[in-house]
Design brief:
With 445 residues, the chain is mostly helical. It has four domains: 141 residues, HUPs (Rossmann fold, 3-Layer(aba) Sandwich); 120 residues, 3-Layer(aba) Sandwich (Rossmann fold); 55 residues; 85 residues, Arc Repressor Mutant, subunit A (Orthogonal Bundle), CATH 1.10.10. 44% of the residues lie in helices and 9% in strands. The protein contains 19 helices and eleven strands. The strands form five sheets. Strands 3-4-7 form a three-stranded antiparallel sheet. Strands 1-2 form a two-stranded parallel ribbon. Strands 5-6 form a two-stranded antiparallel ribbon. Helix 1 links the parallel strand 1 and strand 2. Helix 1 packs across helix 8 and helix 4 packs across helix 5. It is elongated, with a radius of gyration of 30 Å. The structure holds glutamic acid (GLU).
C-alpha cells in the first residue's frame, strides 16, 4: 500500500473536438480513480486552442459522458475553482506573460508574431514514468526531421494561440497538478515539456502514461472495431456501472478475485503502480460478462428502470402492468441477457402476447393430444411447484409420454421462445387467466 496523500491534484484535459471516446473515458477514469483514492482533487480542463475544431457542443458531450460514467470533477469550466479559468481559450494572457518572460531571459525569441523556445544541446530531459519506468532523452535528440539541427519549440503561434506542449506546462504548473496521467501517445511530448518546466524554473510533476487500447486484432482501437464513443455503449444498453468497471480493467487489475466492483471499491483499491504498460485489449465478451454481472446484482426496480425504455422502444404496452410484476419477471430472467436491451428482448412475452404470436403459429402441433394435459393443469392451484407436480403425475400415467413433448408446446404458447426460465414459474407469474388466453388462442384449450 502506498501512503494516501490528500494533496494529490490530477486533471483530465480533453480537446473538445469530438465526443468522449473510449480512450478519453479511460484516461478520465484513471485520473478520477487516483484523485479519489488519495482524497485529492480531479480537475477538468478544456484544451480548446484549436479554434476551428473545438465546439461548445463537444465540450458539453464530453462532460455529459463523464457524468454518465460517474466521474465527477472538483474544479472545471462549469463549476469554477481556485485555479481557473479552466478553458485554455480564456487563458491566452497567461500564456503570453510567461512566453514574454522567456523572451526577456533570452530563452525564447520572436519570429514575427510567433514566440519560439530555443532548444540547446546538452540538457538531460530524462524522466521516470510511474508506469513505463525510466525514459532516457537528451535535448540533443530533439532534431528536425532527417537533419542534425535541433528543432526549437514553438510556444505561441503567429495567430496568437499557444501550442499544446507549452500551454499544458503552464496550466499543469499553475493548477498545481501533482500527477500527469494520460495516454502513452504523449510519452514523446514529455521531454519537451520538461525542457519548458526547467526554463521557467518550475518543479516537474510525476508522469504516469497509460497503455494503448487495442482491438481484438491487436490494432489500435478505432471505428473499424465497432462503437468508439462512450455514448454508443449507453445506447446499446450497457450500464454506466459496467462500463466503469470494464474501463478500469483496461491496464489495471485489483487482483484475480476482484473483477466485478463498484466505483468506491475501485477507488479504494486503485494504485498507479499496478497499471501495466502492456497494451490493453478491448474485449466485447468481457464487457458483456461484466455487464451481465452488474445487471444480476441490481436492485429489481433499478433493473426494471434500465430495461423498461427498451420495451417501450419496441412498442410493448408496458403500462398495462404494475412495476412489481415487471420487476419480478426480470428477476425470474436471472441473468439471461447481457445488456438491458437483450434482457428486454428475451423477456418481451411477459409484457405482451403480440411478439409471441409473431414468433409462433402452432403449425404442426397435435392439439388434440395436448388438450387433456392442459385441462389437467388448469384443475390445479396456479403455483409453479403444483403445476410441475401435476405435469409429472399426468405424464407418468401416459404410455411413452415425455415431459418435453408437453413442456415445449407450453413454452412456445406462452413465450414464443425455445429457451426461457422454468416454464411453470413463467406460468405462475403470468397468471392463470393470461395463460388461458394464450393457450386458447392457439386452440390448445
Ligand atoms: N488535450 C490533450 C489531449 O487531448 C491533453 C493531453 C494531456 O493530457 O497532456 O490529448
Amino acid at each position: 500500500m502506498t501512503e494516501k496523500s490528500d494533496n494529490v491534484r490530477v486533471r483530465f484535459a480533453p480537446s473538445p473536438t469530438g465526443a468522449l471516446h473510449i480512450g478519453g473515458g479511460h484516461t478520465a477514469l484513471f485520473n478520477w480513480l487516483w484523485a479519489r483514492h488519495n482524497n485529492g482533487k480531479f480537475i477538468l480542463r478544456i484544451e480548446d486552442t484549436d479554434l476551428v475544431r473545438s465546439t461548445k457542443e463537444y465540450e458539453q458531450t464530453i462532460m455529459s459522458g463523464m457524468v454518465w460514467l460517474g466521474l465527477d470533477w472538483d474544479e472545471g469550466p462549469d463549476i469554477g475553482g481556485n485555479y481557473g479559468p479552466y478553458r485554455q481559450s480564456e487563458r491566452l494572457d497567461i500564456y503570453r506573460e510567461y512566453a514574454n518572460k522567456l523572451v526577456d531571459e533570452g530563452k525564447a525569441y520572436r519570429d514575427g508574431e510567433a514566440i519560439i523556445f530555443r532548444v540547446e544541446p546538452g540538457h538531460d530531459i530524462s524522466f521516470k514514468d510511474i508506469v513505463y519506468g525510466q525514459i532516457d532523452v537528451m535535448s540533443d535528440g530533439l532534431r528536425e526531421k532527417d537533419s542534425d539541427k535541433l528543432k526549437d519549440l514553438v510556444l505561441i503561434k503567429s495567430d496568437g494561440m499557444p501550442t499544446y506542449n507549452y500551454a499544458v506546462v503552464v496550466d499543469d504548473h499553475l493548477m498545481r497538478i501533482t500527477h500527469v496521467i494520460r495516454g502513452e501517445d504523449h510519452i514523446s511530448n514529455t521531454p519537451k515539456q520538461i525542457l519548458i518546466y526547467r526554463a521557467l524554473g518550475w518543479d516537474v510533476p510525476e508522469f504516469a502514461h497509460l497503455p494503448m487500447i487495442l482491438g481484438r486484432d491487436k490494432k489500435k482501437l478505432s471505428k473499424r472495431h465497432g462503437a468508439t464513443s462512450i455514448y454508443e455503449y449507453r445506447d446499446m444498453g450497457y450500464m454506466p456501472d459496467s462500463m466503469f468497471n470494464f474501463l478500469a480493467l483496461l491496464g489495471w487489475s485489483a487482483g484475480d478475485d476482484k473483477e466485478i466492483f463498484t466505483r468506491p471499491q475501485a477507488a479504494e483499491w486503485f494504485e498507479l503502480s499496478r497499471v501495466t504498460r502492456k497494451a490493453a485489449v478491448f474485449d466485447f465478451d468481457k464487457l458483456n460478462y461484466i455487464n451481465q454481472e452488474h445487471l444480476k446484482a441490481l436492485d429489481p426496480f433499478v433493473r426494471l428502470s434500465m430495461v423498461k425504455p427498451f420495451w417501450i422502444e419496441a412498442g410493448l404496452a408496458v403500462n398495462e402492468h404494475d412495476d412489481k410484476y415487471l420487476a419480478d419477471a426480470l428477476t425470474l430472467m436471472a441473468g439471461r441477457g447481457r445488456t438491458a436491451k437483450e434482457m428486454a428482448e428475451f423477456s418481451d412475452y411477459f409484457v405482451s402476447f403480440e411478439p409471441v404470436k409473431a414468433r409462433w403459429d402452432a403449425e404442426g402441433i397435435d392439439k388434440e393430444k395436448l388438450k387433456p394435459f392442459f385441462a389437467e393443469l388448469f384443475s390445479h392451484d396456479w403455483k409453479a411447484s403444483e403445476l410441475e407436480q401435476a405435469a409429472r403425475d399426468w405424464i407418468g400415467n401416459q404410455e411413452g409420454a415425455k415431459m418435453k413433448d408437453y413442456a415445449m408446446p407450453l413454452r412456445f404458447a406462452l413465450t414464443g421462445m425455445k429457451v426461457s426460465p422454468g416454464i411453470f414459474e413463467v406460468a405462475e407469474l403470468m397468471g392463470r387467466s393470461e395463460c388461458e388466453k394464450r393457450l386458447k388462442y392457439y386452440g390448445l384449450m
